[in-house]
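Objective 1b. Sequence-to-structure analysis of Putative Transaldolase.
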Amino acid sequence: MKIFIDSANLTDIEESLKRGFAQGITTNPSLLAKEPKSSFEAHIGKIIDLIKKYQPGIHLSVEVFSRDQKTILDQAQKFIKQFGYPEMSIKVQVGWDELETIKKLSAAGISVNCTACMNVTQAVMAARAGAKYVSLFWGRIRDGGTDAAMTKERDEAINKKALDGDDFNPFKVVQATRQIFDQDKIPSEIITGSMRGAVDVRDARLAGAHIVTVPPKFFPDMISHFKTDQVVNQFLSDFEKWLS
Ligand code: E4P
């Protein structure tokens, strides 16, 4: 199981990287927009500096910020050249027009992480177009089944048999995607994002994700347990009593 850090916060990234368990970082425009205003280039540069300091050579996904295919191509090529970080993957949103962009970038030797995938067919088509990684959004897949603002879209998709109930169960979506990748020998890796808690992280890997990208706020929950605290305190107090 590979754990990535899903953040653009420099303090959170540093605190995680120095502990050595993370094998990558994923960012997106919303995560960057939570940080103090600065230049995009300078901020990504600082993330790369932290990687070089603590875990040289780990994965970094950086997302394009446009829906125009020509701009996406230009941004992707610019990031690769500008940052010169060999393990950088460019996040490109999934979509019909985007498939051609993914194909072009992959053919040019650029690692693509196809992001915002919500179902199996999106993930398979992106992988077939050349994406090295497909990001399936666990929490948002689940939300898709209940989101009141999306009732019309959900009903339309179900009525035309584009989706069914299984498409809102993230465990089933990731499991089916992994099964198809393995059966058909598709070499792309599944990243699950949109984690909503430590339990999601465990379940995403059990469902077949190769990589789980996790917001740093969940790391303390992943590494602690109330019974651990109890037993460690008990051992220490027993030993102190014996010493005195
Ligand atoms: C990861 O690649 C995604 O950008 C991220 O996990 C999305 O998470 P969210 O649904 O919490 O925005």
